[in-house]
Structures are given as C-alpha cells and as structure tokens.
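Q: Hi! New to this. If I give you a protein sequence and the SMILES for magnesium ion, can you show me the bound structure?
A: Yes, paste them in.
Q: Okay, here:
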Amino acid sequence: MRVIFYTGKGGAGKSVVSSATALTLSQMGYETLVISSDPAHTLSDALETDVHHRPTAIMEKLWAVQIDPIREARESYGVIQEYVVSLFKSKGVDEVLAYEIAALPNMTEFVSLLKLVEYVESEQYDVLVLDTVPSGDALKNIYLPTLLGATATKVIKLVAPFVNLAKVAEPIVGIPTPGREVINQDIKLLKILQKLKGIISNRTVTSLRLIANPEAFSIQNLKRTYLLANLYDINVDLAVMNKIIPEGVHDAYFREWKAAQERYIADSEAAFYPLPLKKLRLFQSEVKGLKLLTEVGQELFDGEDPAQVYYEGHAITVKEREGGLEVVVPLPSTGNYREVTEVERAGEDLSVVIATDIGEARNFIPLPAIAQLMKLDRAKLLNDALHIYFIDERWKNVKK
Ligand SMILES: Nc1ncnc2c1ncn2[C@@H]1O[C@H](COP(=O)(O)OP(=O)(O)OP(=O)(O)O)[C@@H](O)[C@H]1O
Ligand SMILES: [Mg+2]
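A: Thanks. Here is the predicted structure of the protein with magnesium ion bound:
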C-alpha cells in the first residue's frame, strides 16, 4: 500500500502531476485511486471526465474521486459541529457567526484526509494519490494527526460515562454539555485520527512530493514545506520542477526566462538535496486528457515505477539541545566548501553565505517557528553539512 501526496503552490501543476502519476501507476498494473478535494474540480478538467464524490472509474485500474468536503463534514461530523455551535450560542455569539467559527479552518483538506483512512481500509487500492489544495497551511492538517497522542481518546472515554450526569449540571454551569451522540462522534473522530497518524507517519507507506516551478517564490515556499515535513517526521521522497522551457526553444524572447530558470533549477538542486529532482518541460498547451497525461507520465518517470520510495531519510534535522537548538542541513557533496562567511536572519529564513572553491554561495534556509524565539549563535560546516546553533535565552534565565 502506498499513499502519495503532491504539494506545491497554486498552479504549480499538482493536479496534472497527480493525475499523470496515477495514470502511469494504473498502466503498470496498480489499482490506483486519485483523490482531490479541490472545489474547483481540477481533476475533472485534467482527466476530461466527470469525477464524482464516490470513486469514479476512469479506465482499467484507474479511479478518481472528488471529495465534497461540505457534504462529508455534514454527514460524518455534523453532530460535533452542532454542539460547537450550541456552545458559541450559549455564550451569546450570533448563530451565523457561530456556524462560521465552527466550520474549522482548512475543513476541506481535513475532511479529505479523514476520508483517506476509509480508502486505505477498503483494501481496494494499491496506491492512493492525493492532489492537495494549494494553501500551505493545508499541510498543517497532514501534520496535525502525527502530533496526536493517545491521551485524547483516553480522556474522552473517561468522560463519556458522566455525560448524562453532566446534563443535570447544565443549568447550573450555564453551558451546554456534549450529549452521548457528540461524545461517540468525538471518539470515532479521534480513532480515525489515530489511524491517520499511523498511515502518514509510516515512512514506507506515505510520501510527500514537492512540486515547484522554476521561480523564486515557488521554490522558497516549498523549502518551508520541506522543513516542516522533516520536523513532523513525514517522509519527503521527491521534488518535481515543472514548466521548464524546453532546450529546443531558442526564441530570443525567452532568453532571459531560460537563463533565470536555469539558475532556479540549480538553486533547487541544492535546496532539496538529497531528494531526487525530476524535471518536466512546459508543454505546448495546457495538459488535459489521458493522451497528454500519459506523455507527462512517460517524461516524468521514464519507465520507472512511480510507487517506489525515491528517498527515505531525514534531510534537515532539528535537534533540541541543552539551552538551545541545532539545525543540520546537508549540502551537496560536490560543493568543495571552505567556510561559512556570513550568517544572518532574513525574515523567517536564515541567509548563509558559504565560501567554496569556485566562489561564494548564498543559501536561504527556512527556520522552524521555535528558532524565531531564540538567539542565533553560529553556523559551521561539518562533514558536508551545515550546522546552525541557536541559544534559548529563556532557558538561560531559568538557570540563573
Ligand atoms: N508541464 C506543463 N505544461 C503545460 N501546461 C501545464 C504543465 N503543468 C501544468 N500545466 C497547466 O497549468 C495549469 C495549472 O496546472 P494544475 O491545475 O495541475 O496546477 P495545480 O497546482 O493543481 O493548481 P491549483 O493550485 O489551482 O490546484 C493547468 O492549466 C495545467 O494544464
Ligand atoms: Mg489543482
């Protein structure tokens, strides 16, 4: 069983690459389901077939599903939502606003993730390919279940028997207490979340794949995703650089674009090192329909098995040390690095200049949120890796 997520900013090519991957997999004999929760129906566009909210057969061994998150949320978790609304209302919040608040942020992506468990458990598919929504925050929903401990379930099980008792106290306490139905749904939700955690954190089952276009913003955005995935222990196995102007194009009009793209591709080889980086050319038209998707699949995978785990390991590691933090970033071994000549903060990132045999190389390294609270100490090179140290001054104060 394999679960493959594609992520990247809006328009990077997630729907195209997910569909092409799924198509290639089905052609190789894998029973494949491609899942989208994007309300814009991009899967229907790419596959040129109406995709429904239940798995729709596209061709032999290929299925697609367009999750309708609002319907899912209402059908499966409506009771919880009603309860949350009643809570807000009891506090004097206007009903319209209460529903607005109760609709969890990123509900869309979240509900589709819960649905994932159902498809895994159905054992009908060999590979699930997920075409995620563009918001970077949506990824937090993928991480969220991996942070969940067993505690929550225990707490709810403990509380459940007292629900009826609590109902008696309701007029006294003044806020509605959850009914048995809500508790049952809560327990069900937590169980699903735990299963989801099991699936996502299994590094031989789940892979996150990054899709970027050769442009600054697209790459920087993904570097952060890459860092966070490492932080939350989700295996990232592949990066795809999409929409590269092909070599055969010599039109003077595109000269600068081509030069810039080359630079960004070189940057991303370093930024996503040691992930394999696949390149996909900009096609002559939008990529729609099975014929073009088959071509994309061939160019991307070139006969390889897209279900393989392309890379398994931790790229960036963040270690808590006494009184601070150490961030370790591996560098491509081809660099002939000499020393770190400059290190400073640049917004949420760190700008590091490294002297090499052929001149200076500047790297922008995304930092985990906790590092923003700490003092930058130093950066040094050790065995082809950059080690960055932070001092937690709060800790120093406590020690004193
Ligand atoms: N290599 C390519 N060559 C030509 N057109 C492409 C290529 N990759 C993607 N496209 C086109 O770019 C547009 C955006 O691609 P796609 O819908 O796959 O992106 P996305 O990341 O899913 O976007 P969104 O974030 O909106 O869901 C589509 O019109 C698609 O056909
Ligand atoms: Mg899309």
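A: The chain has two domains: 2-301, 317-399. Let me know if you'd like me to explain how to read the tokens.
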